[in-house]
Amino acid sequence: MLQSNQSVASLTKLRIMKRKTSSQPASSTPPSSPHQSPHFPVKLNSIFASKKPKNILKNSPAITTKASGEWVPLSIGKSELYLPLTFPTGQTFRWKETGPLQYTGVIGPHLVSLKQLENGDVGYHFHHTECEESARLALFDFLNLGISLSEIWEEFKVSDLRFCELASYLEGARVLRQDPLECLIQFICSSNNNIGRITKMVNFLSSLGKYLGNVGGYDFHQFPEINRLAMVSETELREAGFGYRAKYIIGTVEALQSKPSGGLQWLAALRKLNLEEAVDALASLPGVGPKVAACIALFSLDQHHAIPVDTHVWQIATQYLIPELSGTRFTPKLCSRVADAFVCKYGKYAGWAQTLLFIAELPSQKAILPSRFCDAEKVKPAKSKERKKGAHNARSRSNVATARQE
């Protein structure tokens, strides 16, 4: 499994040109475009023996800096990164759509916009940063560009015909490598919540950090440090609409502060553990159950085979991976069975495969997929009233937020 130090080592080989940038908050006008506890009793050693995906940054041309106001291309195709299938699909709630095929967010102290260009490439523009070289490295790390998405998907396609068919319509759905603290706090907010309310909570907490600028009418802030989060009271959070999650935020921040090595170091160290150890450690924090822990592990801790399991992922699994359990009631005890099924099918990057399969079930994507993908569930015979009820519930899912909750 790729570790953070490997990715950074690869990135530092790039010939990067420094450019003096303004440290003032960003203006409100974006640049114009030149192109308008999971458990794995299965034997993972053999599953994880497949070759490591290539680093898509190796052997790529040196990235140069264009004139102010223009987009700098990442020189990767749509098959490696398609923004609409990466940012608004429940991985993060801090990025905003600030223009057509354009998303803006904060990575550490850097305010950046990404735009899907007409040729399929992705361009980036830093609105605020004190060091552009550092900002580029942080951006590449955040986008997980040390991993070739297309190469991983080629292996998935060989083992799964349905994945192969879906991939041709949903290419570029990349898994991000977020800051562990940001990811942790966001997914505590997501528990039993809807996307509008989650976003409101995350915006409130983000506003406690340093103001970086306004893009597309949205204010952007650096995510607050643990000590700043600790200054917020449970009463303030409840008044801001956090409900029972307020005590979990407070309790988690206090727990992180109590770590001998410091909360940030403790979280970063989880990247060096195996999945079960990382999930167990996360589950020791208030408000973090197995599902939330798996989300954090997949989206920030390099645990690429983590499978966040809820009722929706359960329905995907029982329909396509473990049909013998179709019609049975989903229980927490069956989470490991679902996770095992994904890992056995897709290997050490099973979480990336699950992300694509999950996105394919979103109403927004079902609307543009060929009808045969939606009809498959309808024509499957129901063997019992329980199965009919389960099929009905599967069709009634309404938005992405519900799939990233406990």
TrEMBL record:
E.C. number: 4.2.99.18
Residue ranges, compositional bias (Low complexity): 22-39
Keywords, in A-Z order: DNA damage, DNA repair, Glycosidase, Hydrolase, Lyase, Multifunctional enzyme, Nucleus
InterPro entries: DNA_glycosylase, HhH-GPD_domain, HhH_base_excis_C, OGG_N, Oxidative_DNA_repair_enzyme
Signal peptide start-end: none
Top-rank taxon, per record: Eukaryota
Pfam families to which the protein is assigned, alphabetical: HhH-GPD, OGG_N
Biological process, per Gene Ontology: base-excision repair, AP site formation; nucleotide-excision repair
Biased composition annotated in UniProt, kind: Polar residues: 1-10, 396-406
PANTHER family: 8-OXOGUANINE DNA GLYCOSYLASE (PTHR10242), N-GLYCOSYLASE_DNA LYASE (PTHR10242:SF2)
Family of the protein in this entry: Belongs to the type-1 OGG1 family.
Protein name: DNA-(apurinic or apyrimidinic site) lyase
Taxonomic source organism: Coffea arabica
